[in-house]
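Methods — Computational structure assignment.
A single polypeptide chain was analysed. Its primary sequence is given first, followed by the predicted tertiary structure written as structure tokens.
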Amino acid sequence: MKLRTAVLPALAIAALAMPAAAPAASLSVDKSCYGPGERVAFSGGGYTASGPVALSVGGQQLGTTNANAVGEIAADLPAPTIRGKRRTDLFTATDQTNLSLVANAPVRLTSLDVRVTPRNGDPSKAKRVVARGFTSGRTLYAHVRRSGKLRNVRIGQLGGACHTLDVKRRIFLANAQAGVYNVQFDTRRRYTAKTAPQVSFLVTVFHTFRPASVSSTSWVRID
């Protein structure tokens, strides 16, 4: 019993003498997906107080920021334009005073695109609209313009991390005049030319008519 009693205080003293484990560095971003040119906001902690911290991606240093008095960082960088639909880049924050303090954060990137099928044709028919990358809003609109006239059309709700959509909608009125229209897609209910992000292109409207069917009735000649 005496041996056990003697050992316990010794273990407690040894535990108190051991240095506390240093907190691990951390890095995170404020959104789940970013479109081209959008600002990626980074935040983290566990770095050397008031020391420099370098941000990099794929081994390429993008810049440095200084931690505050408690070792926290906050920085933002523009999201790069990518090829293809989506990509995930691994960003790294490295403490420049203590290189062992390193943290990573995956950043999901998306391109901006709208595809309308068929793009041209009869205005009375619904078109398939496939969109992605409108990460600044939740609803996609089409603004149809021609000859000084404007029509705002709600296309649908954007979903998923990178705000995608795949629906069938009638963009034009059934009796829309034939001609070339400018159609701008964005996430604002009202049209402004400076809205960003946006995708715009020209659409040609023409009406298709079915020929009248020929009757199969047999005619009998009467003399």
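Note: The CA atoms of residues 47 and 98 lie 8 Å apart.
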